Amino acid sequence: MEQEKLYQLMNSLTLKEKIGQLIQLSGDFFGNDNISTGPIEELGIDNEMIQYTGSILNVSGAKNTIKIQKEYLAQSRHKIPLLFMNDVVYGYRTILPIPLGQGATWNPNLIRNGYEHISKEASKAGVHVTFSPMVDLVRDPRWGRCLESTGEDPYLNSQFAKAVVEGFQGDLNHNQLASCVKHFAAYGAAEAGRDYNTVDMSERRLRQDYLPAYHAALEAGAKMVMTSFNTIDGIPATANKWLMKDILRDEWGFDGVLITDYAAIKELIAHGVAVDDAHASQLALEAGVDIDMKTACYANQLQPLLKEGRISLELIDQAVWRVLTLKNDLGLFENPYRGADLNEENYMRTSDAREIALQASREALVLLKNNNNLLPLDFKTQKIAFIGPYVDSKFLTGLWAINGKTEEIASIKDVVISMDAPHVTFTKGCDYLDDYSKLGKFGEFVSNFKINTDDEIKKDLQEAIIIAKESDIIVLALGEHMLESGEAGSRTQLGLPEIQQCLLNEISQLGKPIVLVLFNGRPLVLTEIENKVDAILEAWFPGSEGAQAIVDILNGTYNPSGRLSMSFPYTVGQIPIYYNSFNTGRPVAVHDDNNRFASQFLDAPNTPLYPFGFGLSYSQFSYNNLKLSSNILSIGSPITISVNITNTSSIAGTETVQLYVRDLVSSVVRPVKELINFEKIFLKGGECKTVTFILTEKDLRFINKDMFYQFEEGVFQIFVGHSSQEYLSSQFTLIKH
Ligand code: NOJ
């Protein structure tokens, strides 16, 4: 529709019809199921307002969406279509590895391709907007939503933010979704990793580390932004004018739709900045929030607020205009059903989509340990016992794959029994958890777990010991219960569930080689487990094709290439722990008991168990001949950094070459290392390749002491290598002229 016509349309709406556009309700208001991700309460919205509602949350399926849209339009005076928004977070029916696993691929192009397929699947199911990507930087694995983030690094997160938006949106044709980047801002920095908790940090840190990924998503064209639940500097994001107006709208020029997170307007009351619904609505509207997700605040309060002169019609109109513009950009006025297709099944899980998801899962898996080259295994000849609750599990997709179907997921056992593996045995050994009560009512929605009796627990364990004794090698498939991470999945103990830990202890006493395959939505603390096993394969929640990917790595069909995008702590007490930290005034290179007044712990190292960028391969790579084209870099005269990488093994493999920099002296303290580039290369056995990076002054900019994003002259150290801890190093000087 032409802008002029759209404008006329907006002006022809009554106030109540306008407000309707600013409301998002869930499916139960439209005779559909309610998928709830927040507290459920009676909203108390009148029927007329329900009829005017502009968008709908988490309803999908072509039949559903077409029916709802048809009925809605039939009773609508102006025929303004409903927007269907959905948490298509990392998959629809084809499900990618969780974003923390995607981060470990260090392959944004592959991930972009994966999201293109997901976008098409969801679009055929009638979805218009996805609440993804979540780009919250996270340095605290106690936070359950690490699962939805690509990790602790601003640069890597920004690369993925861009890739996901591009994958979802493309040119926004009817097979593609509009992307809503979330949660603005800094939600990943919740104190103590407790979900929804306070965030407080300096503006410099916010701008330097936390904001870049949201900005990258918007530069890639993301159409929407979602506010975060947390406060920033004492002001909840949903009422934070500085964040939403000064930075988002004015500084970054974002003119798309800003939606709250689930019930976040009403939560302004609990935060203690609003007295009641009216006050909360006023604060949110003044902050530039367009859509109220799942409360009655805007629905019931905007009219009286306007009448009392507490808000202006102009603010309402601006919000309505942005919503109508999005509907128009999506082509809904011309085709309110958009991509929805009653033959949607034909587009689900196509072989192309599954192939990309499989490759993403393979690349997401990280080999953390492989003593004596225990892996890969030979399924044809070795006697392998697969033990653990994840051996025959279909819960491989993590908490936020709400549109996936468990029956479409193969377990590890399903994959292995379809192969030529004559001496392989399987048993679960124990349940995921000894106590499901902590998962509360939420647990019941995906699981029917019963608590085992002591006898049943013993029986499971004995069976595991029997088959373990009869085998040459044991593969233990263990991990968090799927509901232990994800939203509201904060934890203070980051080991394996107790019952699984007991299983591991018992099995490890048998003295047989053990491969541990881990399932989890966050970095775990593996310090005590690590020395009881010979190999560890970190599988995250690997997605709908994950079991195949795991087996491909276990049997050597695929050579592992994943690299951690988040540090694995040595102990919970180190958290937050991240590679790009400051040096402090009293740094220590290694822990030293005789150096009392240094920045270290008395009882633990400063370093994590597994650092950022780390991951093993079945190949061996060596780095040499690091060269800089010049040791002076100036504006307009970039330098080229080159390094030779040799695969010193006979096994072909992929190496992720990482480039870090350190600004040695500047007006504000800079991190000991910052990732500024990387390249994934494939090397045949014995092959050597030269990788080059071009470095310009733009790569060296930072928020200086006056809060400008600029570089400063001086000496920089560079590190090129296999991880944030293994590298070659050199220096250069940056000058202006
Ligand atoms: C709450 C979550 O924080 C957010 O990520 C999600 O998109 C909304 N609920 C909608 O389900």
Oligomer: single chain
- Assign an overall shape: globular
How much helical structure, as a percent, in the residues? Answer: 25-40%
Report strand %: 15-25%
| CA(first)-CA(last) distance | 52 Å
Strand order of the largest sheet: 9-6-5-4-3-2-1-10
Q: Kindly state the mean pLDDT as a whole number?
A: 96
CATH architecture of the domain at 349-566: 3-Layer(aba) Sandwich
Largest sheet properties: 8 strands, parallel
Q: Helical segment tally? A: 20
The CATH superfamily of the domain at 349-566 appears as: Glycoside hydrolase family 3 C-terminal domain
Low-confidence stretches: none
What structural class do helix, strand and pairing data support?
alpha/beta
The distinct ligands, each listed once, are: 1-deoxynojirimycin
Question: Looking at CATH, which topology of the domain at 349-566 would you report?
Answer: Rossmann fold
Kindly state the number of beta strands. Answer: 26
CATH C-level of the domain at 349-566? Alpha Beta
CA-atom Rg in angstroms: 26 Å
Note down, in words, how this protein is organized:
The protein has 737 residues and is of the alpha/beta class. It contains 20 helices and 26 strands. An eight-stranded parallel beta sheet has the order 9-6-5-4-3-2-1-10. The longest helix is centred in the N-terminal third of the chain and has 17 residues. It is globular, with a radius of gyration of 26 Å. It starts with a helix and ends with a strand. 54% of the residues are buried. The model has no long low-confidence stretch (mean pLDDT 96).
